[in-house]
Amino acid sequence: MAHLAHNHTAEDCVELVTIFQSLSEEDTSTVASLVSDKHYESGEYIYQAGDPADALTIVAHGQAKVFQLASNGKEQMLRILQTGDFDGEAALFSNEDRGSFAQALMDTDVCQIKRSDFQKLMKSSPELAVNMVNAFGQRIVQLEQQTTEAATSSVESRLASYLLETGAGLKQDEFELPLKKKDIATYLGTTPETISRKLSSLAKDELIEKKSNTLIKILDADGLAMVE
Amino acid sequence: MAHLAHNHTAEDCVELVTIFQSLSEEDTSTVASLVSDKHYESGEYIYQAGDPADALTIVAHGQAKVFQLASNGKEQMLRILQTGDFDGEAALFSNEDRGSFAQALMDTDVCQIKRSDFQKLMKSSPELAVNMVNAFGQRIVQLEQQTTEAATSSVESRLASYLLETGAGLKQDEFELPLKKKDIATYLGTTPETISRKLSSLAKDELIEKKSNTLIKILDADGLAMVE
DNA sequence: CGCGAAATTGAGAGCAATCAAATGTCGTGG
DNA sequence: CCACGACATTTGATTGCTCTCAATTTCGCG
């Protein structure tokens, strides 16, 4: 592999991202050649509202938050992009500007494919198109679950799920919270105060251990999954 | 048009559904020939959990609810399928059985395309694939909005949005509520009692008028949109 | 008309938001 | 290296929205 590689990050993208998996070698090479990559420091904006939405953005390494500004000026978290996630769903095939912001939460490498290139790719590679529909279908299922959970579960339950997901994503049971509690709160649709209290509550129940301000250890994953 | 028509419902599907729009005449005809159609009475199940998920289901006319059974046996509403909506996202490309139920809420005509036929279509028609990705992208955007709204808005605000959407979907400002209040409650993540109270509240504020038990008239759409 | 389901209404309890204040953390500059 | 300020977090007290439980009332349908 990597017979055509001249760019490590681009290779990462092609390997990491679901939609590019199970492509032919030829298609894989084509994709890698069309990808441009860029590095962002923690806090930098990957894109902002008003930017033209003309590229699919893939997180090769790192983490970023995608959010909107509500009418009152507060941030409304839409999603967290982890390594391997990509963004640009809706905008990729329309001519609209972006309505949201993406900000790197740590040092982050992203890859981008221009819309025109991506559309050409889709038309020439049925496999890619099918993968794309698959990936979107999975995201839809995940969003449906998230919606249901938001509508039916308590904050404590949602926080427990979030911790489990985060731990699973990092493949560790002891990890730094990647978001400030304010951001976790926005993400889960609650307030920093409540996050603080519920975290203490989970610790009191010995489901997690608060090693430090931001360092969390999951003690009882099964228990967390059963929090109502 | 309708030069090949031998089936009115199938024609409806092809004309109604976004993903089949802007296809070539040849593709359109092919689609119409692959579609099978079926009629369901109100209350009938279109599919149930455990059924194999091997077809894309399109609502040609009518309305259906898609829901899951939670561990406690209660229904969890996932979505309402209106005329022109389709379902089968995630399952269409996997081999999993369905995990949800779809039940007709009124006399409803649906069309179905078998997975194998649909996949062949996608591979032979790049336009269809692009349309499919587009449609999924739109649904993702809608779900993201729904998730954000569920996490940040009050029941009254969500109910107001629901009424606006329903009215817009029916293109009337006076309409029968298509769902029982119990179902609206499940859909919005609340209880029938609260729906009843908030509906009265909206009527007291003269944003809507309760003409009868199920007949609602929207008096102030702008006001509804601003309910917090 | 009469049954059963659906919807309304009322009372009470609980969870989480808000408001307020204290404490902790981190980066900067002296 | 320490002091300072800005911001994040914690903790406490209170309020309010929504759920739950319970009792009617209304509606839909045979």
Automatic annotation (TrEMBL), chains A, B:
Any one GO cellular component localisation term in the record: cytosol
Gene3D superfamilies hit by this protein: Jelly Rolls, Winged helix-like DNA-binding domain superfamily/Winged helix DNA-binding domain
Pfam families noted in UniProt: cNMP_binding, HTH_Crp_2
Source superkingdom: Bacteria
GO MF annotation terms: DNA binding; DNA-binding transcription factor activity
Domain Cyclic nucleotide-binding: 19-139
Domain HTH crp-type per the UniProt entry, residue ranges: 153-222
Cited InterPro entries: cNMP-bd_dom, cNMP-bd_dom_sf, Env_Response_Regulators, HTH_CRP, RmlC-like_jellyroll, WH-like_DNA-bd_sf, WH_DNA-bd_sf
SUPFAM superfamilies tied to this protein: cAMP-binding domain-like, Winged helix' DNA-binding domain
Keyword set, alphabetical order: DNA-binding, Transcription, Transcription regulation
Record bears the keyword NAD: no
Name recorded for this polypeptide: Transcription regulator
Species this protein is from: Companilactobacillus nodensis DSM 19682 = JCM 14932 = NBRC 107160
